[in-house]
Backbone:
């Protein structure tokens, strides 16, 4: 059976400002398929102010009220005219004309006696809601004659008693009227006026400024609604003020209590008291944006979500701290009592209280503008103790702000305060005072106002972005670097939605220029922006930019082959910046430098990932580490570590000269611009060094034989001369080839690593059946012999070079890094 429970929607003045808004609201409501909808409306934006002003003008006998009333009429008929046609337009405007003449009567009476009784003001002020309701009901009827057309005058239902604390609803009376006015079998959309009500004497009254939220909550209670949806112009309740915290996000679900705490601390989307009737009846409240109806908004209900910790962070500025200090207070009952009595008598409200268990001092926070008053009354109250020295001082510190984290889930959950104060500490912010209520729903810290925004951002990132947001700087957007940027661009959305991972490339640097982006650089068009906006290259500036207070993790991806950049890793790691790179230089240089990287990473609590330095995206280092960490013993590592050399010897079949093949490979981009960089074997030697060090071997280039395929006499000449003279050595290569062929072997350039640093790199003839002899063109192949893989070695084979695969490998390292950083992963 269809759900017969009501759903109550409420649209405020800003959602009903003009014809466009009415159309939008009509659309939203007709999209809802509930059987019974109640729609509480405010006056069109700004209308109530104008109406109130009419009474003020009339009271002064200023006859501009007539013109103002005409202006209202114009606005209303313009709006209606563009929404309605024919009879329904005529009906709405006729009704308005009738109201206008009633208003005119009231205003004229006011003008005559030059005084506006509250009742008259209330009547005038309340027309805005009637006009909205009538117009919206007509719009709905026009689009859906079956569902629309009904509007309800709340004055016939909501009955209140005005008290000093505001209107108190007379529930029994209101309920009885509700049941009479609204048919029990009503189906469709009933538009209801907000703001206005009737008092005990049966006269019109209002629920106070912005009272429509209250009306909506009252109707939700009276109708026993399943939900109350408050439509406004923001996406929901935010985790922090978005003007101060760029990363603020909409809180999906929160409890009434949390909403209350956040509302108190300035997240002024709702007014907790006014929503009381919904809260008391356990009706979930949903905050949604009428200008962005596809956003689900924030859902506020009694239900706490166990897995959550904090919900929002707020800052209130304009606070002063008052500190009462002295040994005479220790163990003396009544000190606090006297302090608060003095403040109460002076009408000073206290925002925060903190007393250490030594009882040596009590510290309170008060609004800045009553700080002087507070000091005076407290000094007076403790005049005797101050004189006798039992209390040393009453000190006031101005220009303070309270930063508070709020959330039901904090209760009984260790670590929240640690994270809160830890992030403040990391951002270098001094805390003056701390308070946590025993409900544990709120932890507050007092900081200097000039640091409040920084504090807010740091804390926000500590809770919301932690482990999930990486601030990335990329050096060297060449072949690999730019392929990586494209891959990140393509995957970013999916990583965000599926894994909550937020990769923000915020800096891209080439040798002379760099581009810095605020939230992140648009990777779809970074090249154009780079050309237009790049700054002078400055590594220090880049580092500061990618590692700011408000983002939790910074990574530098080094896609250069630069030794200079590699020299920076230790410093970065020490300062907590992670490094991901395919650049071999730092790991194959001197042993001392390499060891320093490890210490630096430990000091900075950072990670350095370089899987791609050996076989691009092939999982060589990862596999090796897994073997070692799971207790296997490595007996040997052997393989072909150079795609270029693999290619040369795969293609070389004795029919063509070796020099010809080198030239051809160079032309197709399979070699470095200077092929000697490949043929010298240095690249392979570096990779072998990296693997040896993973095994814990203390090894450096130069410690083991590396057979260079560059003839001695050609090592120092120009590239051109090298290429020109290479044919002189073709015969040598041919002879080696013939010899291998005769033994049924193949020439392969191999790297070998045994136990005890017995490493070597060089050209060998391997059996034609050996796996090394049978690889695809530019494949790398690595074979691990271990205690577990003794007879049948573990082999990893595949393309070990090329921008796409290498970039993919670097990307993989980046994701691995993110995993290390998520505590829950
Ligand atoms: N129209 C009324 C006001 O502006 C009530 C409301 O908007 O909630 O105060
Ligand atoms: Mg309003």
Residues:
């Amino acid at each position: 059976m269809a759900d017969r429970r009501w759903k109550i929607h409420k649209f405020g003045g800003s959602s009903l400002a003009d014809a466009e808004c009415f159309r939008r609201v009509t659309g939203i409501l007709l999209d809802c398929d509930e059987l019974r909808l109640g729609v509480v409306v405010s006056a069109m934006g700004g209308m109530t102010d104008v109406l109130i002003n009419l009474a003020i003008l009339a009271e002064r006998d200023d006859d501009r009220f007539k013109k103002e009333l005409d202006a209202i009429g114009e606005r209303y008929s313009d709006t209606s005219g563009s929404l309605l046609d024919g009879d329904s337009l005529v009906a709405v405007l006729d009704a308005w004309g009738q109201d206008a003449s009633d208003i005119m009567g009231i205003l004229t009476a006011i003008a005559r006696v030059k005084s506006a009784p509250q009742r008259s003001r209330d009547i005038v002020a309340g027309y805005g809601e009637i006009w909205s309701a009538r117009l919206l009901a007509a719009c709905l009827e026009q689009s859906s004659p079956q569902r629309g057309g009904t509007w309800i005058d709340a004055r016939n239902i909501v009955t209140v008693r005005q008290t000093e604390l505001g209107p108190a609803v007379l529930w029994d009376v209101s309920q009885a009227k509700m049941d009479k006015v609204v048919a029990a079998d009503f189906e469709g959309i009933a538009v209801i006026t907000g703001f206005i009500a009737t008092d005990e004497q049966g006269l019109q009254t209002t629920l106070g400024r912005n009272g429509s939220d209250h009306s909506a909550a009252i109707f939700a209670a009276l109708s026993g609604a399943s939900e109350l949806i408050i439509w406004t112009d923001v996406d929901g309740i935010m985790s922090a003020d978005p003007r101060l915290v760029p990363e603020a996000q909409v809180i999906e679900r929160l409890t009434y209590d949390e909403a209350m705490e956040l509302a108190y601390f300035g997240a002024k989307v709702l007014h907790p008291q006014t929503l009381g009737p919904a809260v008391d009846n356990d009706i979930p409240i949903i905050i949604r944006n009428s200008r962005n109806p596809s956003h689900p908004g924030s859902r506020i209900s009694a239900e706490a979500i166990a897995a959550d910790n904090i919900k929002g962070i707020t800052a209130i500025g304009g606070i002063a701290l008052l500190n009462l200090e002295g040994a005479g207070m220790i163990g003396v009952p009544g000190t606090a009592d006297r302090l608060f009595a003095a403040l109460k008598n002076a009408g000073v409200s206290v925002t925060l209280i903190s007393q250490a268990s030594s009882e040596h001092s009590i510290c309170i926070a008060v609004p800045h503008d009553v700080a002087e008053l507070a000091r005076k009354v407290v000094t007076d109250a403790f005049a005797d103790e101050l004189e006798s020295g039992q209390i040393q001082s009453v000190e006031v510190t101005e220009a303070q702000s309270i930063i508070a984290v709020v959330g039901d889930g904090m209760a009984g959950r260790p670590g929240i305060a640690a994270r809160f104060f830890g992030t403040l500490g990391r951002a270098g912010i001094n805390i003056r005072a701390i308070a946590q209520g025993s409900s544990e729903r709120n932890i507050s810290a007092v900081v200097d106002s000039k640091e409040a925004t920084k504090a807010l951002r740091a804390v926000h990132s500590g809770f919301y972005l932690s482990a999930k947001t990486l601030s990335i700087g990329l050096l060297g957007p060449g072949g690999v670097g730019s392929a990586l940027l494209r891959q990140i661009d393509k995957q970013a959305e999916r990583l965000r939605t599926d894994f909550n991972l937020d990769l923000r490339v915020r800096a891209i640097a080439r040798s002379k220029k760099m581009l810095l982006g605020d939230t992140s650089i648009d990777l779809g068009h970074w090249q154009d922006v780079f050309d237009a906006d790049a700054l002078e290259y400055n590594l220090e500036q880049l580092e500061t930019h990618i590692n700011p207070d408000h983002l939790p993790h910074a990574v530098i991806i080094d896609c250069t082959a630069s030794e200079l950049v590699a020299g920076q890793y230790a410093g970065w790691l020490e300062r907590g910046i992670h490094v991901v790179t395919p650049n071999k230089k730092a790991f194959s240089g001197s042993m001392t430098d390499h060891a320093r990287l490890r210490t630096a990473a430990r000091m900075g609590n950072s990670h350095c990932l370089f899987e791609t330095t050996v076989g691009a995206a092939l999982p060589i280092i990862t596999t090796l580490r897994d073997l070692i960490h799971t207790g296997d013993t490595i007996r040997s590592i052997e393989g072909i570590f150079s795609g270029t050399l693999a290619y040369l010897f795969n293609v070389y079949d004795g029919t063509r000269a070796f020099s010809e093949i080198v030239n051809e490979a160079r032309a197709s981009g399979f070699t470095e611009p200077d092929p000697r960089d490949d043929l010298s074997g240095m690249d392979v030697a570096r990779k072998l060094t990296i693997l040896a060090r993973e095994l814990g071997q203390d090894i450096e280039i130069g410690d083991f034989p590396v057979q260079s395929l560059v003839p001695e006499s050609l090592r120092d000449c120009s590239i051109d001369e090298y290429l020109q003279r290479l044919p002189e050595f073709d015969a040598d290569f041919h002879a080696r080839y013939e010899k291998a062929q005769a033994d049924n072997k193949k020439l392969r350039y191999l790297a070998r690593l045994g136990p005890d640093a017995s490493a070597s790199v060089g050209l060998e003839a391997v059996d034609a059946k050996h796996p090394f002899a049978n690889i695809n063109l530019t494949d790398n192949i690595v074979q691990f012999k271990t205690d577990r893989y003794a007879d049948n070695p573990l082999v990893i084979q595949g393309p070990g070079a090329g921008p796409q695969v290498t970039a993919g490998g670097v990307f993989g390292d980046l994701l691995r890094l993110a995993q290390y950083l998520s505590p829950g992963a």
In short: The chain has a mean pLDDT of 91.
